[in-house]
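In response to reviewer comment 3 from the previous cycle, which asked for concrete evidence that the modeling workflow produces usable outputs, we include below a single protein chain processed end to end. The sequence was submitted unchanged, and the resulting structure tokens are shown without manual editing.
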Amino acid sequence: MATMRRFVRTRRYWSMGNKLTRAAALGAILLSGCQDSATPRPTPAASGSPTPIAVPSRPADPLYALQITGGTSTQTSSVQGTTCVLRSRHSLQFGSSAMPSQTGEVLRVQLTVSPADGNQSAVSPTPNGNTPVLVSRARSAAAADFPFWQATSGQVTVSSLQLPSDFGPYPFIYGMASGTVDAMLASSDGNRIHLTGSWACVVEIDKSVS
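The workflow returned the following structure tokens.
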């Protein structure tokens, strides 16, 4: 009987010990959860979109003045409205606005120069077979024109040239160019004219042309 009582007492103590152990473990879990909920968690950084790059606006056309005398005559006096495109890294092309002539037609001056400062020949052939300086004619400003006078002597001067470095992030970016021209030109039927004056333009760089 004494042995049986000791066994029951021992079993009772063992059962109570297990209950205490389980209660302590449960308390530790609850305490850990409370501490975790009280600890501030870092907020993930917001994923912002990249700041867009502002597209540069086109500068205003600079003033220029050209004069044609001889077989036909016309002139511009401090006018704006030009086309100037860097066709390649070696060819800058200037095109004047339409210039009304005394015959009722309109004339346009086209200059093709190397994009570098200094004097350049007006007669050295360009890849398309025309001279670097030519004057075209058309019946009206809206009509198609065609080269009529080609240079026989003279020079084009590039006195100011500001081109962007490399080719930038956009299809067209802008620079500025200006200079002077003094050249004699002749048509296929022998009509001769004298072109003088200053030219200036906003340069549009065409990235699609190497």
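The longest helix spans residues 2-38. We consider this sufficient to address the reviewer's concern, and the full set will be provided in the supplementary archive.
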